[in-house]
Amino acid sequence: MDDRATRESEGALEADFASRLDAGKSIEPRDWMPERYRKQLVRMISQHAHSEVVGMLPEGNWITRAPSLKRKIGLLSKVEDEAGHGLYLYAAAETLGVSRDQMFEQLLAGAAKYSSIFNYATLTWADVGAIGWLVDGAAIINQTTLAKTSYGPYARAMRRICTEENAHKRQGFEMLATLAAGTPGQRAMAQDAVDRWWWPTLMMFGPPDTDSPNSGELMRWKVKPKSNDELRQRFVDLAVPQARAMELTLPDPDLRWDEENGHWSFGAIDWDEFWRVVKGGGPMNRDRLRDRRRAHEEGRWVREAAEAYEAKRRARAETSAPS
Ligand code: FAQ
Questions:
Q1: Do residues 248 and 176 make contact, with C-beta atoms less than 8 angstroms apart?
Q2: How far apart are CA 216 and CA 317, in angstroms?
Q3: Which of 115, 124, 152, 251 has CB 3.0 to 4.6 Å from 195, enough for a Cys bridge?
């Protein structure tokens, strides 16, 4: 094919891609897509997968210290769900031509991003409740919109994940509400956890729209249905009445109901802190990577055993296949 014919056929493919998006149809792995669309999805889905897997660490720390059997079972199952979410998301990213090994390599080398929120320490049991209520609550707001994202495998993974995250959020709220209604010491512990997790949770939604280099492209391609600031505002609007229901305060003296626009207006976010954490300078960045590397090493025998089992199964299937 000469250059002109190639350009014309690429133009037709691009037009077809654009019309699929305009018609609200999903893009599937075998469909043609612009290289940049593929790259943006790999970036976003792999970061999301890493967030789920690194996100197991702060709460995982509390499994052996849960205050009762009931709480231990609830937490254990939440952390297991997060491993499953990582799995769905790595599988969705693999449909775009990147291997799971490549993604793990980038994470373990410290070259991949994951959510800033998981670089904060879980100091008390109440932090487990605050993560469920605030962090899972924020993740659901973001992920419910991503369930309508234009890339089919990502959208389907999101629908499944959102169902489970909803249960996590409710579990976290119930834990925190129980502490808030408990002894003065328990109540203080719940309030302290909310004071420490509130601002980092608002940062989870990413930089303000005016400083978000990827949003324009992602929204044009219907990968990201809503902007960072829109989702952050929606989260605040839902969280304020929930905090009030538990009689806990949110650590923002500027939080006010705005009659004019019908939203809660909130104070300035410390974006210097956000970028410090994203660039590796948060309180727990080094610990998280160290623990993730160790977990990967300790799981090596499981991966090797699974591969050996699969090789044996294939060899057996080949020898028993009719010739
Ligand atoms: N942390 O241009 P934008 C969970 C980076 S899942 C670190 O606005 P974009 C479940 C961003 O990557 C939580 N980095 O980027 C759970 C970009 O850098 P790059 C994870 C961040 O993609 C709960 C740069 O800043 N959820 O919590 C963050 O348009 C409890 C410029 O930003 C997802 O990943 C951040 N917070 O919007 C697990 C959802 N924010 O790559 C365990 C899917 C931004 O150009 C326990 N992702 N950056 O070098 C998204 O919706 C989007 O990617 C955003 C960022 C909203 C995160």
A1: yes
A2: 50
A3: 251
Q: Which residues contact 81 (CB under 8 A, 6 or more apart)?
A: 164, 168
Residue 263's φ and ψ, nearest 5 degrees, are -135, 160
Q: Indicate the pTM of the whole model.
A: 0.95
Atom of ligand 1 nearest to the CA of 142: 51
Percentage of the residues of the chain whose pLDDT score is greater than 90: 95
Distance from chain centroid for Cα 82:
9
CB atoms within 10 A of CB 159: 13
Helix axes 184-203, 228-245, angle to 10 degrees: 170
Q: What is the mean pLDDT of residues 145-171?
A: 96
To which residue do tokens 């610990």 refer? 287
- C-beta neighbour count of 297 within 10 angstroms: 10
- Confidence band for 157, pLDDT divided at 50, 70 and 90: very high
Lookup result for tokens 């300790």: 298
Find the residues whose C-beta lies inside 6 A of ligand 1: 43-44, 47-48, 51-52, 55, 82, 113, 115-116, 131, 135-136, 139, 142, 203-207, 212-215, 218, 224, 228, 278
Which residue CA neighbors atom 9 of ligand 1 most closely? 214
Token pair belonging to 218: 């992602």
How far apart are the C-alpha atoms of 105 and 108, rounded to whole Å? 5
> What's 33's DSSP letter?
-
Name the residue with tokens 């660490």.
Answer: 57
Residue 228: predicted pLDDT = 98
Q: Whose CA is nearest to atom 5 of ligand 1?
A: 206
